[in-house]
Amino acid sequence: MSLSTAERLVEAVLFAAEGPLTPAEIARHADLEGSMLPHLAALAVHYAGRGITLVERGGRWHFQTASDLAHILRREREEPRKLSRAAIETLAIIAYHEPVSRAEIEAIRGVQVAKGTLDVLMEAGWVRPAGRREVPGRPLIYATTPDFLSHFGLATRRDLPGIDDLRAAGLLDPIDLAMEAQDAQALLEPAGEGEDEEDDAGA
To answer: Would 30 be classed as within a structural domain?
Structure first.
């Protein structure tokens, strides 16, 4: 399959880019008019099944190593900084509830969020300020970035794992499972049953 001049221009722009690009950014760099999506779709088909593939993550496009070959090219390297449990919990809350304010994050976690925790996530490029909530005090709200989607191999936030996926992967702590079971039991108990037991005990 031969590529058109426009498709070759888009291909060249993506190869030369330092990071993922939106269709509008591609059009500007390639000096092209009209929608880039047909050219991107043609390139995606052209590279399907090859050593590199063209993928879209959060509205941005880039070339990446084919998923079945990634393990061959993966290099062991020392991470300069690992995320703390607080940072991981905060990132998860932002990903599942965005846009969300610090107060809302603290309400979900049940503890205060240190400013440094959010700074670490923003330095990693996974979290960004997303404006201010139109309520008294106008608190700053946070959301995830396209880099977050790209790093975790997600096309959109809809691809985030659900509760069943997390349980199957063993990523829920025993205390999380116990509380989930407790909540389910409470829903199954007939209303007032606990009150009758207390009355009997008092009698």
So the answer is: yes
